[in-house]
């Protein structure tokens, strides 16, 4: 819609329209245009707006776009970028291009890049913004206000002011509201308050969790020597939180792919787990071949096999996801307590479903004119197997994530498909062993 | 889903409204006098005489401005706002996309009712994520910290439904009893076939649920097409891989058969496509029917996958029976 309206405008109108457009919308529009119109749009933007547009593109897209520009133009735009965006984009660049460009950046930008570039993607430092307003405790509040007015245009937010001593060691914060309401003469040292903080190498997911729980809009980031390096804002935390949450959901489904990639990439990303799972079903075939004698004689066992596996797999998946939520999302539930609940519930479910399975399968055999078997014996086999397998499915599903965690593997890797396959292997053994035993006893 | 929750449980009423005809200095004094500990002052809202919201002013701009300037000259006349009936996911989306810290909620007359903050957005995002997780994990709300009895009774109906639905699968297998009796090795691959169909179902279900949650209004035809193409590619890969796995297994059993491996491969291929389709379409179908997809999807998908994959597998084997035995 926006695209069609935009394309109808004259060049002058476009320029005016773009001037007032939010960076996010500019990027959306840009992505929907043909190459030719993209170039025109880009040429109509001021350097500052070019930088804003670029910060809303994916880092890869941004780096490609920058590389296509003449060097001095690119450098000009880069100097306008926020340090954390800048770092993400520059990391995508070719090693040689990067070296050449970095030398030409202005001093502050260069410094900012140097200080951020070594952080890994999942460390708090990679997302922090080093641009913030620092006050010293000796400052008079009038001086602080003047500094604030001078610096305000250059920082992301002025909601929180940070107090450091002359060695840049973090002392505390002054909320803007407190500063405005304070009556002169008063020194900052009388005004500042302690604040929670995080370290630059802290795990980003945990930091965003902390920001969410405490409702902190600007979280100070310190070095291990308690020097103030930057801040992480609540909107960064929202982004991190969303990415992380979607990742967990995907992993639960053995879906290891980033959003919005092409068909081939998606396919390749899903394939490894599918192939692993396929190989994992081979033991089932091997186990079944050991029981060939009774399978060939009593094909009715095969008929009920999917029923048994489906029910156990379904409960296993539910129990696994609940366990992962309890482990990951810090719901203040003790795992031991959760485990007891799950097992008790599985025993109850097992009894009810076991009896239900016994009745249903016996009736099914009796009613079906083509089946010339003893319904009660096979009902008994199904019923007892269901009971045992529901309990073992829950055991697997609650213990596997803890086991992976103990090995240092992300428990989210225990996906529904993986647990189903593991449960199937166990169920098949129980089912046919039990069948062998009961058939020998009764038939 | 959280969609049926309304914005009003996240309303904040502690914001400041100001008069556009006042100067910066007067306004600053007003803020100092009237703001309390919990007042949100990052944005100030400018009202006209009829209490209609006509502008928004970031505190930052107010602080930088010259003292004698009038508010109406420095305020932003273009600003984001929400309506009372705006769904919560849209509100979260706007806060996130445009990096806003607070956003006013207007009634039909354009008067400000309350504000929605980034903090609320993050809190509700957490809740929404949990719900999404439940939909994919096939679990019901509140089942996480429920006691054993509550857990049992919330899970039981669907397990029983699955138990009954599985009889369909049993009937399918039953009607091919002759084939199975004459070629017993066929059944060894049954679990492989059904598990793999279930696995791709889970994947495309998750991908679709995430898509619906992220872009509730996006047309889904394109998404289903994409899923189907991905499924097609993976079906080919898994089919080929399955062929070799089956053949090696049969060699170990000392019953090597290219034909049986071929039947397994073709059925895997077909079963995976069925699985992809059922996974991608189930959440869309339940959304259309307005049924809570969280627990119903599992049994529904499993039954479809099992029944159709087995029909294909066993029919194929029956048709080729003269060459197998």
How would you sum up this structure, described in words?
The complex is a heterodimer of chains A (443) and B (325). In chain A, the strands form two sheets. A three-stranded mixed beta sheet of chain A has the order 1-2-3. A three-stranded mixed beta sheet of chain A has the order 4-5-6. Chain A contains 20 helices and six strands. Chain A starts with a helix and ends with a helix. In chain A, 67% of the residues lie in helices and 6% in strands. Chain B has twelve helices and six strands. Chain B has helices at 24-34, 59-64, 71-74, 88-97, 118-137, 148-174, 177-182, 190-214, 221-252, 258-289, 293-319, 321-324, and strands at 15-19, 40-47, 53-58, 82-83, 102-106, 112-117. In chain B, the strands form two sheets. Chain B has a three-stranded mixed beta sheet. In chain B, α8 (190-214) packs antiparallel against α11 (293-319) and α9 packs antiparallel against α10. Chain B starts with 14 loop residues before the first strand and ends with a helix. The model of chain B has no long low-confidence stretch (mean pLDDT 86). At the A-B interface, α12, α14, α15, α16 and α17 of A face α1, α2, α4, α5 and α6 of B.
């Amino acid at each position: 819609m926006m695209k069609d309206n935009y394309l109808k405008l004259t060049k002058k109108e476009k320029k005016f329209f773009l001037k007032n457009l939010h960076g996010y919308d500019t990027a959306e529009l840009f992505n929907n245009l043909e190459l030719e119109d993209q170039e025109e749009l880009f040429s109509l933007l001021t350097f500052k707006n070019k930088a804003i547009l670029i910060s809303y593109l994916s880092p890869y897209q941004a780096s490609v776009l920058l590389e296509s520009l003449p060097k001095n133009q690119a450098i000009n735009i880069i100097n306008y970028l926020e340090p954390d965006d800048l770092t993400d984009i520059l990391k995508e660049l070719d090693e040689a291009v990067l070296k050449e460009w970095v030398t030409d950046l202005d001093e502050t930008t260069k410094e900012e890049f140097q200080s951020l570039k070594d952080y890994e993607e999942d460390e708090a430092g990679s997302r922090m913004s080093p641009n913030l307003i620092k006050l010293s405790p000796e400052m008079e509040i009038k001086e602080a206000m003047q500094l604030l007015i001078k610096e305000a245009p250059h920082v992301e937010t002025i909601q929180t002011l940070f107090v450091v001593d002359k060695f840049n060691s973090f002392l505390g914060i002054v909320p803007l509201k407190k500063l405005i309401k304070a009556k002169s003469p008063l020194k900052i040292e009388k005004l500042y308050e302690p604040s929670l903080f995080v370290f630059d190498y802290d795990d980003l997911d945990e930091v965003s969790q902390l920001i969410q729980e405490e409702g902190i809009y600007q979280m100070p980031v310190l070095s291990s020597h308690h020097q103030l390096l930057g801040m992480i804002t609540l909107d960064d935390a929202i982004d991190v939180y969303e990415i992380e949450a979607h990742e967990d959901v995907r992993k639960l489904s053995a879906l290891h792919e980033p959003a919005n990639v092409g068909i081939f990439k998606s396919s390749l990303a899903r394939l490894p787990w599918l192939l692993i799972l396929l190989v994992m079903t081979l033991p089932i075939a091997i186990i079944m071949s050991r029981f060939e004698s009774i399978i060939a004689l009593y094909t009715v066992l095969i008929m009920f096999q999917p029923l048994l596996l489906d029910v156990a797999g379904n409960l296993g998946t539910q129990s696994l996801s609940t366990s992962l939520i309890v482990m990951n999302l810090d719901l203040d539930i003790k795992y031991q307590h959760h485990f007891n609940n799950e097992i008790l519930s599985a025993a109850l479910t097992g009894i009810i479903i076991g009896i239900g399975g016994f009745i249903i399968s016996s009736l099914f055999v009796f009613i079906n004119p083509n089946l010339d078997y003893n319904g009660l014996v096979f009902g008994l086999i199904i019923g007892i197997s269901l009971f045992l397998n529901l309990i073992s499915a829950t055991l697997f599903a609650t213990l596997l994530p803890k086991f992976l965690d103990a090995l240092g593997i992300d428990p989210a890797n225990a996906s529904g498909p993986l647990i189903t396959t593991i449960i199937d292997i166990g169920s098949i053994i129980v089912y046919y062993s039990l069948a062998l035993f009961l058939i020998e006893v009764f038939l | 889903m959280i969609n049926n929750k309304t914005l009003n449980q996240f309303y904040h009423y502690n914001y400041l409204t100001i008069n556009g005809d006042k100067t910066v200095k007067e306004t600053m004094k007003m803020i100092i006098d009237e703001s309390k500990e919990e007042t949100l002052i990052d944005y100030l809202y400018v009202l006209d005489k009829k209490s209609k919201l006509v502008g928004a002013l970031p505190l930052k701009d107010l602080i930088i401005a010259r003292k004698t300037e009038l508010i109406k000259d420095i305020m932003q006349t273009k600003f984001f706002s929400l309506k009372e009936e705006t769904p919560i996911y849209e509100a979260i989306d706007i806060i996130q996309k445009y990096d806003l810290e607070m956003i006013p909620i207007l009634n039909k007359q354009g008067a400000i009712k309350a504000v929605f903050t980034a903090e609320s957005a993050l809190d509700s995002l957490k809740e929404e994520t949990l719900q999404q997780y439940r939909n994919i994990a096939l679990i019901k709300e509140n089942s996480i910290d429920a006691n054993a009895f509550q857990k049992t009774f919330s899970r039981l109906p669907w397990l029983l439904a699955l138990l009954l639905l599985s009889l369909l699968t049993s009937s399918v297998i039953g009607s091919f009893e002759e084939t199975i009796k004459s070629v017993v090795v066929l059944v060894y691959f049954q679990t492989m076939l059904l598990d793999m169909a279930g696995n791709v179902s889970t994947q495309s279900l998750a991908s679709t649920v995430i898509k619906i949650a992220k872009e509730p209004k996006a047309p889904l035809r394109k998404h289903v097409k994409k899923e189907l193409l991905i499924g097609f590619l993976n079906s080919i890969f898994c089919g080929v891989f399955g062929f070799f796995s089956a053949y090696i297994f049969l060699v170990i059993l000392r019953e090597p058969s290219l034909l049986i491996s071929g039947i397994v491969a073709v059925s895997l291929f077909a079963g995976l496509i069925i699985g992809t389709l059922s996974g991608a379409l189930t959440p869309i179908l339940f959304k259309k029917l307005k049924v809570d997809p969280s627990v119903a999807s599992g049994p529904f998908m499993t039954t479809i996958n099992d029944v159709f994959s087995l029909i294909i597998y066993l029919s194929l084997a029956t048709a080729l029976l003269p060459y197998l035995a």
